[in-house]
Amino acid sequence: MVAALALGGCSDGDDETAATTTAAATTATRTVTESVTLAEAPPPDTSGSLADAVARVLPSVVSIRTKTFGGGEGEASGVILDHDGLILTNNHVVEGSTSVTVAFNDERHKKPVAATVIGTAPERDLAVIRVQVSGLVPVRLARSSALRLGDAVIAIGFPLGLGGPTVTSGIVSGLNRTIDGENGTLTGLLQTDAAINPGNSGGPLVDRAGRLVGINTAGVREGNAENIGFAISIDGALPVIDRIRRQTPSSQAWLGIAYSSVDSESAAVQLGLDSSTRGAAVTVVYPGGPGEKADLAVGDVITVADDVPINSAGDLAKLLAKRKPGDEVDLELIDSRGPRLVTVKVALRAPGTAP
User: Fold this and answer.
1) Considering only CA atoms, which of 95, 23, 108, 9 is closest in space to residue 52?
2) Span 192-243, pLDDT tens digits
3) What domain range is 327 assigned to?
4) Which of 98, 197, 310, 345 could be disulfide-bonded to 159 (CB atoms 3.0-4.6 Å)?
């Protein structure tokens, strides 16, 4: 299917059964940071109350607002992974952002707070961010691999700037779907007819008990398409989340900048450049980092690195993955004033800074 994507139980029983149920419930409420395994998560609930499910999960759903260097603003969603501020969302939500702000729905944390991107997986459209807030309510998990066609699911998020959370419900319409995303092909997706609109990105797809089975990532915007949305299965997301959390900053080559793709005519023109320009645009220059020392500036577009053409942020990330701290990288840049050459000495990524 070719489509335009908008990145946009209880049971009675004897004491032994009760003990087993209690143990399972305890395990199921562990957080991601306590290394929940898929084997420990229960299968999805298909018979609970929709309203009860929403009430259970809503304190774990957050609203995310972003700003970009061009003055653009975005609104999306996320889901809390642990008590101490780890939040999951989509990569396309935070890519190219100069600031990320999170607002909560737990009736305890009233003020929006700044968040830091601690890692991304563009090829899976996942990102992990952190806020300096404790006492949060982590989402509970279910095994998305146990879902069947027709199982009931609920999507929750903050679409279209409506001022509060929106809940839509539907069924699992397809399993193991593949679509083309902004950074390549996304595989193993859940398809649902629960409405997923711009702003739902990064929010949870949950079962009838309010347990997470997927991360909403895209809805189809094609004239003849109706009620087709996609979510990243939580079974596939957990290993990626774990890898992001466990990556060692000191082992990562870092230019001291954040950057986003200039991969279209409109993106190039917005920066005051020729419409044919492609590359990775600098969106943040971190104080004291190698980019600042090399006089990189917000708005610079990296078009070539070490004689390798850079046509997107992904190209630059791939090149840097092959460099070690201490290496020098020759960059060809262009901004509205014209082209120039700089050499940047790769450093160790500082903990807490965006990749």
Assistant:
1) 9
2) 999 888 888 999 999 999 999 999 987 655 555 678 899 999 999 999 888 8
3) 249-348
4) 197
Q: Report the predicted TM-score, pTM, of the whole model to 2 decimal places.
A: 0.69
Q: In a 3-state reduction of DSSP, which class is residue 20?
A: helix
Choosing from 60, 77, 82, 92, the catalytic residue is 92
Among 173, 201, 233, 312, the one annotated catalytic: 201
Residues 198 and 264 in one domain: no
SS3 100: strand
CA distances from 346 to 95, 295, 313 (A): 21, 14, 17
End residue of a domain, out of 197, 214, 244:
244
175-209 per-residue burial string, b: 16 or more CB within 10 A, e: under 16:
bebebebbbeebebbbbbbbbbbbbbbbbbbbbbb
55 and 121 in a single domain? The answer is: yes
Exactly one of 82, 125, 235, 300 is catalytic; name it. 125
- Give me the number of domains the chain comprises: 2
Report the CATH number at residue 253. 2.30.42.10
83 as an active site residue: the answer is no
Whether residues 232 and 267 fall in one domain: no
State yes or no: is 125 an active-site residue: yes
180 with 223, same domain: the answer is: yes
With beta carbons less than 8 A apart as the criterion, state whether 202 and 64 touch.
yes
pLDDT in tens, 89-126: 998 898 877 789 999 988 888 899 999 888 888 888 99
